[in-house]
Each structure stands twice: as structure tokens, then as C-alpha cells.
């Protein structure tokens, strides 16, 4: 559980760098005025003749700058200047521009900044936008980034944005993915790359197995806590949720309303109790498909003679069946029912047959049994189910190794069939039988 919550560390970083600084001119002027008003008056006894001559005026040389400082602005000018910039540069709607500029203004106030250089803001914001465009971001994506995290306009490109953006792009994130992530993880570009971003993403990738799964978790983490609370409110113990955290990965990253509707559908329509061992698997299966696709898959079963009560029975036993594609379901039904002659009742009692790949497991083992049965080496009534559910090592030990002398090429036949299509396996098997 602790590992899965690693992305929440994105919410625990104190961003301490102040982007906008007040000028010192006002402070100096104020100090000078204070000094002049508080200085003690000159007494009449002090003679001008005895007073030391004043020091010669100090001459200074102006330090050259690369750009001329622009005017400084403060509330409420800051908000309107930022809003105008968003409208002119990124085509923000006026209302959204005002809302976004207000958020940036509130952040500036929280940092104690009283005055901001207009030129500095415009130059830095333009650099950020130009950098994002060079990385392939389109205008709608940039708007999404800025709307979700206005402070990105204040980030320094070379020191901040560039290394973090390069890391995400090299990892495999698309510009669209990054825009989606920032809309959820609003402060991601404000955190340290090596201290927070890289360790958290690498840890997630280790657990989740792929960049795609990392994205799914990062985009859905905002709903995680709400969904856990929702399941607890339904009476499901936190221990049960913790044990099935990987099964629930998709469900817990859905919108709470979606999860609530899915739970109701699982219990009311499909009859899977929340206390059932398959409840979480059922929720996960239905979270992945909409009702239209679910009905379409049901019609595939019905075309092979299944009725709705059969489907409910199957779903209760193996909810995963409905995560399979329609093509996968059709291929398995065609093989089990048309080729092997299994009826609905047999498949329901051996429903785990749907869990195994035809190409990688079922067909290769089926062909091995056909060869062994044809040569009288095993019982002709040996069920395929028994061989399919075996582990790889056990299958080799029981059905390959003992018969390598009687069938010298048996192991090669088995290995060469793994992963090839069922049609290719049928053709190869028929050809080998003819040649024999």
C-alpha cells in the first residue's frame, strides 16, 4: 500500500524559490527619508567655520545591462497584465485568463512580493512558451499546462523546465500525456528532478511494469483516496482493499461516480456480492468496458447458444472473461465448442479455460496430447483441461520428457507451436501427420 502511494509525495514538496523579487529602490528611498526625519537637529553652537568640509560627491559608473528594465506593477495591475498576456499569447478565453491570473497573483502575494517587473514577466513567459512549442506542444496543450499550473510561466527554462521535460519525453511520455499529468499533478515542474520526480516515477514503473501504467496511476491518483473511502463506506475492510490493491488499480483511479455505478452494476445485475472473493475482479472487469461493449460481448456468447443466466454464472466464476476482446472470445468458443465439442455446461464448470491463451498454451498442449493419444502413449480420454492448467515445468515433466524416446521430436513440436496462430498449428500438425 505504501509503495502505491508514492505519487502522493508529489504533494509534499515545499517550493521555496521566490521568482518575483521586490526592487530595492523603494526600500532605499524609505530608509533615506526615515534617516532624515529622525536625525537630531543641528544646534546653534555648531559653527560653520569649524565644520569639516563635505566629502566630494561620489561618482559611479552604470553597470551595463542586456535589456532595459521595464515598469513595475502591483495589485491590481499584475492580475490584468497577466490576463492580457494569456489572451494575446495563448488565446485564453477572457474569463479563464482572469481566473488563471488570479491564481498566479495569490501565489505571488503568499510569497510576500509587492512589486514585479513587467518586462521580466513577459520575457520569461515568452521563453517558456517558445520552449514548449519547440518540444512539440501545440497551443491547446500549452493552454492546458498553463491553466493547470500558472506558475510554469515563472519557471526558468534552462535550469528548471528543460531537464524535467527532457526526462519525461525520453521516458516515453507524449506531449499530450504530459499535459494530462500536469492537469492532475499541478506542481510537478516545481519539484526537484533528482529529489522527487525521477525517484517517484522510477518506483512506480518498477511496481506497475510499464510507462502506460505509470501514466494511468498518475492521472488517476486524485481519485485514489476518495475511492478507498467509498469502498470502506460500503463495508469493505481496509485489509481486503490492501490485499487486492493491484487488482483495484484501474478501479481506484476512476472517478468516484464511475466506481459507485460499477459497484452497483456488479451487485444488482451480475449478482456478485461485495463479500465474494471475485468481487474486486468483477469491479475491475466492468471498470474497463462500457455497457455498449459489454452487451456486444454478451451477444458473441449468445451466438454460440449461451443465454443470460449462463453469462451471469460465467461472470461470477471468471469475471476476467469479459475483459477479453470479442475476437478472443469468439476464437475460444469456436475451438472449445465447435472443434472439441464442449457444451455450455462443461465450459461453465471448467471456466478457467478462458484464462489461458490459445496460441501460447492451449493449442501447443492440445497437439502434444493428440500425438500421444494417436500413438497410444496416454489414455485416449485424458481431458485437455488437466494438461492446460498444469504449470510449464509439470507439463514438461509429465507429457514431454517421458516420451522423448518414443517421439524424438516431441519437444521441438511443442516448443515450435508456442506463440504461433491456431491456424498455423493446425496446418503444421496435419502436414506432419501426412508425412508420417
Automatic annotation (TrEMBL):
It comes from Carnegiea gigantea. It comes from the Eukaryota. Residues 31-50 have a biased composition (Low complexity). GO terms for biological process: DNA-templated transcription termination. This is Uncharacterized protein. Belongs to the mTERF family. PANTHER family: CGI-12 PROTEIN-RELATED, TRANSCRIPTION TERMINATION FACTOR MTERF2, CHLOROPLASTIC-LIKE. Coiled coil: none annotated.
